[in-house]
Amino acid sequence: MNLHLDHDSHTPLYEQIASQVRALIAADRIRVGDRLPPSRVLAGELKVHRTTISNAYAELEADGLIGPHVGRGTFVTARPAAAEPARAAPDAGLPPLFWEALMVEEPHTDRLHEFHQYPSRPDTISFAYALPDSDMFPLEAIRRSVDRVFRKEGPSLLQLGERLGYEPLRKYLAGRMRASGILRADDEILITNGCQQSLDLIDRTLVASGDAVAIENPTYPGALSVFLRKDTRVIGVPVSERGVEIAALEEVLAHQRVKLIYSVPNFQNPTGVTLQVAERRRLIQLARRYRVPIIEDDIYGDLHFDGPALPPLKALDQDGLVIYSSSISKMGFPGLRIGWVVAPRPLVERLSVRKQSCDLHANLLAQATIYELARQGLLEKHLKRIRKTYAERRDAMLQALEEHFPGEACWRKPSGGMAIWVELPDGIDASALLDVAKEGGVIFSPGAHFYVGPPRANTMRLTFTTTGIPQIREGVRRLGAALKRIMKSHRARGNGTPQPGRRNAALV
Amino acid sequence: MNLHLDHDSHTPLYEQIASQVRALIAADRIRVGDRLPPSRVLAGELKVHRTTISNAYAELEADGLIGPHVGRGTFVTARPAAAEPARAAPDAGLPPLFWEALMVEEPHTDRLHEFHQYPSRPDTISFAYALPDSDMFPLEAIRRSVDRVFRKEGPSLLQLGERLGYEPLRKYLAGRMRASGILRADDEILITNGCQQSLDLIDRTLVASGDAVAIENPTYPGALSVFLRKDTRVIGVPVSERGVEIAALEEVLAHQRVKLIYSVPNFQNPTGVTLQVAERRRLIQLARRYRVPIIEDDIYGDLHFDGPALPPLKALDQDGLVIYSSSISKMGFPGLRIGWVVAPRPLVERLSVRKQSCDLHANLLAQATIYELARQGLLEKHLKRIRKTYAERRDAMLQALEEHFPGEACWRKPSGGMAIWVELPDGIDASALLDVAKEGGVIFSPGAHFYVGPPRANTMRLTFTTTGIPQIREGVRRLGAALKRIMKSHRARGNGTPQPGRRNAALV
Questions:
Q1: What is the domain-level CATH number for residue A267?
Q2: More exposed terminus of chain A, fewer Cβ within 10 Å: N or C?
Q3: Which chain A residue's Cα is nearest to B87?
Q4: What is the ipTM of this complex?
Q5: For the whole prediction, is pTM greater than 0.80?
Q6: Is residue A200 within 8 angstroms of chain B, CB to CB?
Q7: How many angstroms separate the first and last alpha carbons of chain B?
Q8: Which of B84, B176, B112 is nearest to B383 (CA)?
Q9: Which of B137, B291, B337 sits opposite A359 (nearest CB)?
Q10: Where in the sequence is the domain holding B234, given as residue range(s)?
Q11: Each residue of B24-46: pLDDT tens digit?
């Protein structure tokens, strides 16, 4: 709403607001059935206290013009009697559509959107995103692959394709999944536009209004975007150094009817922890006992640095309880938007019909290119190269943290993936640290983005994949300096000495 | 299911069916959780009476092997006892998950899925799909464009991108849309994975449970996939030779609360009719008076053969009521999966947040390639070429229809697009014609696919874009022969003489 307040006027602010809203309703600029902005939002816009808005709304409600609607907000219920305009031309003077009031659902999807940190200095070093390093892309090999597939089958790659995906890639991935014990029959796989779409399709297929989803806490913001809807319950299950806490999950399953469990067993995002084998088996047993499917998001699975990967949940699952999701976005090429789901046949069938209704099929040129790279062994070769480099960067970041971070901060060495999770001393807010760090030329993701419900404000995620080792050292140095400055002012404000170091204690 | 009945046996047919299904379950060929075909469908397949199937299913249900699930069909619930394998493990004996029962919603999306007609002979001529002709793709130009953009900006095309789309393409399309009066501000455009995704995003953003959508009838099956949900009402509005019937739409709007209108004003799919300018203005006025947004699906808009295109609804809309959707799939390259939406800013903002939650963004390599083609003027050049060729093919098909179709069939000349809509004589079922035509080596789409509610069974859509002129002539000749055969047997069955020709009467 476009309201203009005169702070010098003798008319109280709440009356100014009430009379302007009244005028907007009279003029049909806001109509019966339209929703007014939440008082919190309008207070923010007008830079007044929330009580001022509440008072204005109470005024309008007393006039019978607006009314609350439980759980939905405040709506215009009537027009002021005197202001009913005479209508000359039938169509004339109609106000524009109030789109906000037509929209279905308050999207929680800002979880992904909010996530973006923009650097404030040109030389900013970013530890903010879990992305591959573009400098490591095997460009010439990919360029040749694109060209080759295009020469070989251009016409069919430009034409409409099959909803399940480009057949050669589907077969290749099926073979790879079969070798890891993830897939049993070739029709258990669907190619999607990446893990984000896989989650969305699974949500739309399995999660109905009122359903509950159990999710690791903290977790990937994109999963929160999908599952945190107005009409679902998302239950956060804590994560410890051995992965999601099985005992806590059992408590949840025993007392609440859960429709779906979402887990990232390898190098969990954001904590970097890996679910240990015994816990994997227990998780499968729980799911079996309570008959709850598990989404195994294995997007980081190929990025194991210290020895081979642990067996996927899906390979331990004899009963078809696990829906396995992965993609090529972390091993390499998120811009191509290709991922896949392995699931029992009836579910793959339904997901593929849903996928068709969403966007027909994944784009063919990208699928064929990835297949061509895989066929030539270049995907495996690239994976080996980035595993080695990312492991070195992880080690450099760990070393830099030891050197530049105060003893009161703690973290754990992840055995793969893209990030290190740091717990700052109690009372230190990572968002406040980010503000200072930005000025110092380094950015990261405050932990608050990753939590269901109230976040642990003193947590942060540092990714080590997109920056070279010298930058990692310099970035951590800058970050350590910013942290020390914050801690000093924290102490100066009389907030006491931060907790002693808890390095290597359970921290997530 | 692959069942074989022995009509000469002394064993009743229902027992033969029951015992064969039992064997399939025992052999794990049909598994617990699988859905059995509806009795109607299976009866059709086996060419037995529906009661026979009901009896067989009752038998299996009495054995405890299958069970009905209200509104969802009949499912396998257990395996025959003797076949249950012994299990050692402690959790053993729990039956596998019953996926069908876990799924949210019976998808009506089979509308797209059902649509596929498979040729039964290798030399089949297809008039079934509204696709571009792959033989006309400017392959060498595209290959060079892919290679060029890859060389120029490979690393950023492989990396994660912006949710609104690849900026140069977005700017190019914005310019093109601005020139047609469709777009006013550069931030009114979002790049999607094609019109299908645009419809899905709009549906998820604007259509809530219980809402009604007014849609042209007949219409694009993919729109029915999106809007025909268990919890929405889809109101079909008839289409006449001037496009959607405005008076009928007004009746609907006056008596029902409609959330959204879906229209294809240019070369409507499947009827080929174009909404005339006076009707376009009246449509906008109606939407304005009743405050209902319109989706203008202009996917065929660029394929105008007889003079320039009429003004888009969006260009006539002064009030931001129209959501404009288009794509590159009909002008050329559906395999690349790229389309766009132009809409008022608050809606584009919300759609883009939704898009991000669905799959982050459209794939970058395809977007950059299309931009490169456009930048070099090759997209326009290609458009000119296909307009000319498709127009010639349309004319050849019209001529062949005159020559080979009986006088009782009627059709209209479309001024663009990809298809001709044919009305067969009353009493002739286009699906029955398809069965005969398939054997004769030609396929098409029966009109039934395109209807909301009860279809007009005597309608069919013939596309003329994927086949050369000699094939069009031969295909229509085959089709005319099949039609005459069907009409002859129709008369022989004493169904009277079909209606006299109504060519050029209102026919849709």
A1: 3.40.640.10
A2: N
A3: A318
A4: 0.80
A5: yes
A6: yes
A7: 37
A8: B176
A9: B337
A10: 139-379
A11: 887 777 887 788 888 888 888 88
